[in-house]
Write a structure and sequence with these properties.
The complex is a heterodimer of chains A (149) and B (120). Chain A is an alpha+beta fold and 149 residues long. Helices cover 32% and strands 33% of the residues of chain A. Chain A has 3 helices and 8 strands. In chain A, strands 1, 2, 3, 4, 5, 6, 7 and 8 form an 8-stranded antiparallel sheet that branches. Classes of the chains: A alpha+beta (149), B alpha/beta (120). Chains A and B meet through helix 3 of A and helix 1 of B. Chain B: This is Two-component system chemotaxis response regulator CheY.
Chain lengths: 149, 120
């Protein structure tokens, strides 16, 4: 994937947090990892991509960031089930919204979610992964985009 | 009062929709987490209005819309999905959905979309 396409994901994640209308999302400088597995935070939602492009898009965040998002949604239940669910839902929304730019042949899977360290079988170790670090209300997360044309 | 069914594999989205709709106009009769479960529950509860996610396990939302419309062509289906490309929206509408709300959505947008659905 070319670096220029990264702006699509930056715009989508910014728009996602704009729905809450309170505090702006801070997007740190994206960077590239080659042939390394990116680190993850407390909870991660992974979307498999197939069709015109292949790879994964995932959202990984601290439990504090996810809890803040749940607060903004009016959700009082901050159970682990809901934190995991939210990580998957954010990943799903980011990937689904990307179809507006990549087209209907950008096929997305249902979210695969996990807590803690990555399963090496899930996240790619090879190829180029673009990391988009974000913070909101002082809590951190990241979007990782690893796509092959 | 319109009978409402919420279909989404995400618990937090189902809860969010439940908190947002106007309880004076809609009565929740069922929730479902997959297309398969949605068709089963539709046959039991016969809701007037359905909110439908598209990316779900077992049976996706587009297939589920077709099956539900085959059972009741009069049901109003509001697609609530992150799939934002035009062709998905057109496909959903051609299968019989009545409206499309793209995620992420605000509570106000959801309420407005549900209101428009039953006004048509």
């Amino acid at each position: 994937m070319k670096e220029q396409k990264l702006q699509i994901f930056v715009s989508i994640i910014t728009n996602y947090f704009n729905q809450f209308g309170t505090e702006e999302l801070i997007v740190d400088t994206p960077y590239l990892l080659e042939n390394q597995q990116p680190k993850v935070h407390d909870y991660t939602g992974v979307i498999g991509i197939s069709g015109v492009q292949k790879g994964v898009v995932y959202f990984s965040a601290t439990s504090a960031l996810l809890a803040s998002i749940l607060d903004s949604m009016g959700e009082t239940d901050k159970s682990e089930d809901n934190l995991v669910d939210l990580a998957g839902e954010v990943a799903n929304t980011v990937s689904g919204n990307a179809r507006n730019e990549f087209g209907a042949e950008f096929h997305i899977s249902v979210p695969l979610v996990f807590k803690g360290s990555p399963q090496s079988i899930i996240l790619p170790k090879n190829g180029r992964s673009f990391i988009i670090p974000v913070s909101w209300r002082g809590q951190i997360g990241e979007i990782v985009v690893c796509l092959q044309d | 009062m319109y009978k409402l069914m919420i279909v989404d594999d995400s618990n937090i989205i189902r809860n969010r929709i439940q908190r947002a709709y106007d309880s004076g106009q809609f009565m929740l009769v069922a929730t479902a987490t997959s297309g398969v479960q949605a068709v089963e529950k539709f046959n039991i509860h016969r809701p007037d209005v359905v909110t439908m996610d598209l990316t779900m396990p077992q049976m996706d939302g587009l297939e589920c819309i077709a099956k539900i419309i085959a059972i009741d062509p009069e049901v109003r289906i509001l697609v609530v999905s992150a799939l934002s490309d035009k062709s998905t929206g057109i496909e959903a509408l051609s299968l019989g959905a009545s409206g499309f709300l793209c995620k992420p959505f605000s509570e106000e947008e959801l309420v407005e979309s549900l209101y428009e659905l039953v006004q048509d």
